[in-house]
Automatic annotation (TrEMBL):
Pfam families reported for this sequence: CSD
Official protein name in the record: Cold shock domain-containing protein
Transmembrane segments: none
InterPro entries in alphabetical order: Cold_shock_CspA (IPR012156), CSP_DNA-bd (IPR002059), NA-bd_OB-fold (IPR012340)
Domain CSD per the UniProt entry, residue ranges: 1-50
Organism: Marimonas arenosa
SUPFAM superfamilies linked: Nucleic acid-binding proteins
A molecular-function term among this protein's GO annotations: nucleic acid binding
Amino acid sequence: METETGGKDVFVHISAIERAGLTGLSDAQKVTFDVETGRDGRESATNLELA
C-alpha cells in the first residue's frame, strides 16, 4: 500500500483487510491504519478503516 505522505510502501495482509470487514482494497482506496512491526522485523498495516 502506498502512503499519502510519500513514505515507503506498507504491506497489508489479507487478514487485516478481513478484520476491517472489507473484502479487498481497490487502487487509490483511502484508508487509515496503524503500522505494526512483526517478529521478523517487517512492518505491516493493522487496524484498517475506510477514510
